[in-house]
Amino acid sequence: MQQVWNDIKGLLTGRRASKEVAKGRLHLVLAHDRTGLDGAKLQEMREEIAAVIAKYVTIDAEAVDIQIERVSRESTELRVSSPVRNHSTLS
Amino acid sequence: MGKAIVITSGKGGVGKTTSTANIGAALAQQGHSVVLVDADIGLRNLDVVLGLENRIVFHMIDVLKGKCSLQKAVIKDRRIENLFLLPSSQVDEKDAVNEEQMLHLVGQLKKSYDYVIIDCPAGIEQGFRNAIAGADEAVVVATPEISSIRDADRVAGLLAAADIPTRLIVNRISAAMVKKGDMLSKDDVIDILALDLLGAVPLDDEIIATTNKGVPATLEGTCPAAMAYEVVARRLNGEVVDDVVHNVGFFARIGRAIGLSHTA
Ligand SMILES: Nc1ncnc2c1ncn2[C@@H]1O[C@H](COP(=O)(O)OP(=O)(O)OP(=O)(O)O)[C@@H](O)[C@H]1O
Ligand SMILES: [Mg+2]
């Protein structure tokens, strides 16, 4: 009930309750913490993955992105997204 | 054979010592024999929170160095039956103790008391490893703030790796701020940390006032935080107890007054 009211208030005032901001930030921070990967390792992994993908399709290596997100209590998901430049290379 | 419970948090200043003192006093009041162990070596505080600072002669490091017997270092709280303190040293360093020594010490205490409650220092270094070494169970204290929850998650991971069953106390909750949406609720924190809840303790001025006096709030009586800690103590003892409902809203209060509902 309180939640609904806060949501309505947020819509009316255009202000998001600060605890919702905190929750979103925590989900990302904890997901990263739980992988035990630091920034340098993550960067290294990103570059390696980009190199593997680039072997098969044309991509912009800089645009390869890794997202780590907690999807539920028990599981954290690692998602790689990479915009493909040229569709004709896909069979 | 008693049970050893470590009170930990990762982040400093979130209420480990306050929780240790209040849970200990509540368990003693509920009829169990309790010894509180201050494992914060070099920064001892549990003695002042309990108001026992003038009674200390020997401390944990003296026992480990063989300067005195364990019985000699343990202080009895005169205000209540069955509450004892093993003080820490204010002059030694954290590495004056190792995990094996702690394990042995806690094992000795478990033979004489129902509950051995260990006040862990902040951080995840040697002091933390010492404090959890002899623990059968752990309690992680977190406040509803990002940095505290993040550190609690880290500590919960380390405790899981050490195979120590862990439950959560959410401390310093302001019902008014939760209502405004400016503070994470106890349920938000449980959900994020994925730990079982042992208790939710409100932000309560009485904690500061009773700490000034050196009397655990649970010995003084009935302030909201004291009631929450009594629930925590009962749950630690395996009893199934409902949450205390703090700061019930206006409509719920009227509803209850006219017998409409029991829930807030
Ligand atoms: N529920 C509460 N309501 C109000 N104040 C509180 C509450 N819990 C703790 N405090 C206050 O917060 C401060 C820090 O508490 P405490 O010393 O127990 O934390 P700690 O985790 O043991 O700190 P450290 O990491 O330094 O050992 C104290 O001033 C205490 O009185
Ligand atoms: Mg402390």
Topology:
The complex is a heterodimer of chains A (91) and B (264).
Chain A: H1 2-13, H2 18-35, H3 39-56, E1 65-70, E2 76-81
Antiparallel strand pairs in A: 1-2
Chain B: E1 3-8, H1 16-29, E2 34-38, H2 46-50, H3 60-64, H4 70-73, E3 75-76, E4 83-86, H5 99-112, E5 115-119, H6 126-133, E6 137-142, H7 146-161, E7 166-173, H8 175-180, H9 186-193, E8 196-202, H10 205-213, H11 217-220, H12 224-236, H13 250-257
Parallel strand pairs in B: 1-5, 1-6, 2-4, 2-5, 6-7, 7-8
Antiparallel strand pairs in B: 3-4
Helix pairs in contact in B: 1-12, 5-6
Structure, described:
The complex is a heterodimer of chains A (91) and B (264). Chain A has helices at 2-13, 18-35, 39-56, and strands at 65-70, 76-81. Chain A is α+β, with helices and mostly antiparallel strands and 91 residues long. Chain A has one domain (2-86). In chain A, strand 1 and strand 2 form a beta hairpin. The mean pLDDT of chain A is 82. Chain B is α/β, with parallel strands linked by helices and 264 residues long. In chain B, strands 3-4-2-5-1-6-7-8 form an 8-stranded mixed sheet, sandwiched between helices. The radius of gyration of chain B is 18 Å and the shape is globular. Residues 259-264 of chain B have low confidence and may be disordered. Bound molecules: adenosine-5'-triphosphate (ATP) and magnesium ion. Residues 9, 12-18, 40, 45, 122, 171-172, 201, 203-204, 207-208, 211, 225 of chain B line the site of adenosine-5'-triphosphate (ATP).
Order of helices and strands of chain A: HHHEE
Arrangement of strands in the largest sheet of chain A: 1-2
pLDDT averaged residue by residue of chain B? 93
- Mean pLDDT level of chain A: 82
Helix fraction bin of chain A: 40-55%
Number of structural domains of chain A:
1
Tell how many strands the DSSP assignment of chain A holds.
Answer: 2
Give a quick account of the main beta sheet of chain B: strands, pairing sense, barrel closure.
Answer: 8 strands, mixed
- Total helical elements of chain A: 3
Structural class of chain B: alpha/beta
Helix content of chain B: 40-55%
CATH class descriptor of chain B: Alpha Beta
Tell me which CATH architecture of chain B applies here: 3-Layer(aba) Sandwich
Q: Per DSSP, what share of the residues of chain B sits in E-state strands of 2 or more residues?
A: 15-25%
Which residues of chain B sit in consecutive blocks of at least 5 with pLDDT less than 50? 259-264
